[in-house]
Design goal:
Blueprint (H helix, E strand, L loop, with lengths): L4 H7 L5 H4 L1 H24 L2 H55 L1 H14 L4 H11 L3 H11 L11 H16 L4 H4 L4 H27 L3 H27 L1
């Protein structure tokens, strides 16, 4: 019976949607949190007096404008980069198929060396290379992985990746703005925004930990430290410019 690989991944290996889109969720979520908080921190760092004059409404307007503009930009950027990577893969693979047809002796030698470098004894490597040369499609896939070090993008979904990045950016990026959306006074809203930002980073770190299975300290610590450093820089720039 033929194996349904999509079903096999989800049922036998328990691959979840969060694992499939982890890169986009972490990338978009972290950037959304930090980028939006940079607006809030920049205004707050400009000085308490100036922040009061600007008002929570202005912070909210700038924050939301930045949130959606950057979210759309990142989502489309992820989509275009995925499409570009897929196009490049197909172009190089077509060239590899042509070389397998026009210069098989050279390609066989390359396959033999790749197999030896990965632990096959010389005789076995030669025999496997001869077998692979009978199936150019499979040989080309192997060459793409080991010669060009390119991952097969045929199972990827650039549109889905772009949408995941956009949704993560918008969802997590809105968290630093919640106190301002609630209409709190700027003097009260900023410290709550700081706390909300670090809670969002903490939550993103917990997601990394749960999905990857790595140590909690590493996943959460890296996420909070990297995001916190960016937030500190944003606040510092506000102090320097507005102080």
């Amino acid at each position: 019976m033929a194996i349904n690989w999509a079903q096999h991944r989800t049922q036998d290996h328990h691959i979840t949607r969060a694992q499939e889109f982890l890169k986009q969720i972490v990338y978009g979520g972290n950037d959304g949190i930090v980028t939006t908080f940079a607006i809030v921190a920049g205004f707050a760092g400009a000085s308490a007096e100036n922040t009061a004059q600007i008002g929570a409404l202005a912070v909210l307007v700038f924050g939301l404008a930045n949130l959606f503009a950057d979210g759309v930009s990142m989502g489309l950027g992820e989509f275009l980069s995925g499409r570009s990577q897929r196009d490049l893969y197909h172009t190089r693979r077509a060239m590899e198929l042509q070389e397998l047809s026009t210069d098989p002796d050279r390609e066989r030698l390359e396959l033999q060396q790749m197999l030896r470098e990965r632990g096959l004894p010389g005789g076995d490597a030669d025999q496997v290379a001869d077998i692979l040369m009978r199936n150019h499609d499979f040989a080309a896939d192997l060459m793409m992985a080991y010669e060009f070090e390119m991952t097969d993008p045929r199972s990827t979904n650039p549109a889905g990746d772009g949408m995941s990045t956009f949704m993560a950016f918008i969802t997590l990026g809105s968290i630093p703005l919640l106190p301002y959306i609630a209409g709190l006074d700027p003097a009260r809203a900023f410290p709550i925004s700081v706390a909300a930002t670090f809670l969002a980073l903490f939550g993103l770190g917990v997601l990394r930990w749960r999905v990857t299975g790595e140590t909690a300290l590493r996943c959460i610590g890296e996420t909070v430290i990297v995001g916190g450093l960016c937030a500190f820089v944003a606040f510092g720039v506000g102090v320097l410019v507005g102080g």
